[in-house]
Inverse folding.
């Protein structure tokens, strides 16, 4: 008796130029999709006597990057929601396990299906993601996630990039915000 809430769309663009509709769309799918799935099935999982909620956040739910404010907000929200739920299930004595998954770059269509602010080239952004950041196959991601669920891990990191970023964030805390913009500017394709 398990539910996997894997809702993910992206919008690329600085918060300054993002329209409310762009941010709302990402939050509606990426965060509210997880909330709705969890709330819909949680009573059944509790009643089953042996349930597991698996919510997919992102490595961008561990740290924020420029140009991904909406996605960061949604994935940080998924993380907070999931971590609170795990503790609530324990406190209430409910037989429901809860896991939050933080994938790094997975070879999916998320970048190709993303929307972008005016002046950005969605195709170039997708090519950059696919060629430089998407290093883990969906099959490998599924294997890592299922292993983490079997072990009832609170947090599952998928991909070497996710593991490296978590180590860096632990080591430097908010200090990552001083050097990450330089790294991101080297990766970003030119605007059109």
């Amino acid at each position: 008796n398990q539910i996997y809430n894997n809702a993910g769309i992206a919008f690329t663009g600085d918060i300054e130029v993002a329209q409310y509709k762009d941010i709302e769309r990402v939050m509606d799918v990426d965060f509210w999709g997880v909330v709705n799935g969890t709330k819909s099935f949680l009573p059944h999982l509790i009643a089953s006597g042996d349930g597991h909620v698996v919510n997919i956040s992102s490595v961008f739910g561990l740290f924020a990057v420029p140009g991904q404010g909406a996605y960061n907000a949604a994935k940080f929200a998924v993380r907070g929601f999931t971590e609170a739920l795990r503790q609530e299930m324990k406190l209430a004595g409910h037989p429901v396990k809860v896991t939050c998954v933080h994938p790094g770059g997975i070879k999916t269509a998320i970048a190709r299906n993303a929307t972008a602010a005016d002046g950005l080239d969605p195709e170039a952004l997708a090519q950059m993601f696919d060629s430089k950041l998407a290093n883990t196959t969906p099959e490998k991601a599924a294997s890592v996630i299922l292993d983490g669920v079997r072990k009832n891990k609170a947090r599952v990191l998928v991909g070497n990039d996710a593991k490296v970023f978590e180590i860096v964030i632990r080591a430097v805390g908010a200090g990552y915000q001083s050097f990450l913009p330089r790294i991101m500017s080297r990766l970003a394709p030119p605007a059109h």
Summary: The radius of gyration is 17 Å.
